[in-house]
Amino acid sequence: MSSPSPDRPSIVVVGSANTDMVITAPRIPSPGETILGTSFVMAPGGKGANQAVAAARLGAAVTFVARVGTDLFGSEAIAGYQRDGIDTAFIVRDPDAPSGIAMIVVDAHGENAIVVASGANMRLTPADVDRAEHAIAEADLLILQLEVPDETVRHAVELATAHRIPVILNPAPAHPLDDALLQQVEYLTPNETEARILTGIDVVDDASADRAARTLLGRGVRTVVLTLGARGAWLATDGGGRLIPTARVQAVDTTAAGDAFNGGLAVALAVRHTLDEAVRFANHVGALAVTKLGAQPSMPTRDEVDAFMGD
Ligand code: RIB
Fold this sequence. Notes:
Strand content: 15-25%
Shape: globular
Bound molecules: alpha-D-ribofuranose
């Protein structure tokens, strides 16, 4: 395991890189319906990239393992990560697939609907991860999501486990996961929808959040951090579960709030905050992200988070 690095934590992210096409509209259209939107913006996104950028802006040394096409979207995305100081040495340019694209509609309440054309993301291989083995072995933490192939996620988790590096798995977008994988996950961070897909339990209040979290703990995860939107997050370990409330903000766009939360959680855990402190910090990072439009444009800096938390 790597030695503690409380000042500048080192985080590896294995995950997706997209370019988001974001239309704001009064509401999200129904199937078969055309409605007029109010604005359009193109911005860098992708759950993996968003979490990498979030962690980098909070002061971590971040290595991002991903695949993009040889198109302009891929070039622009990499240039953006580099501006945020992210190590892009393990981002593969794939000549046979386009870069990932997400179409996003954001309604008047800041809620969204997203469709992703994965492109090169779904071609990220275990061998791509192996090339970054040294970085993973030296990291304080590995963080993953589910927008890249399952076999690649599993391989990265196994590699981190072999090097005794703790793993955060953000199971988004969710699909059923087996216990062999969950047993290697130190921190699982579903939202309510993802928790329902993983457990079959509708998360509607504290009691159901606790039931879902305990179900996941029973399957081998060591810590569950179930995000509850504007309510905060339900933190559950063998020692019990509790709500860690978040700050109230005016929501402009909830896109990537979960990514901001995960980036914040990774940084706070890597600098050895307690679990409760880490979730409180992550809550504030997520809350700040919903006050701005766009995924990566909304990721706050460390100074912004400190000011918001009143430090
Ligand atoms: O979590 C938000 C992200 O989901 C967007 O940036 C979009 O690209 C999709 O990956």
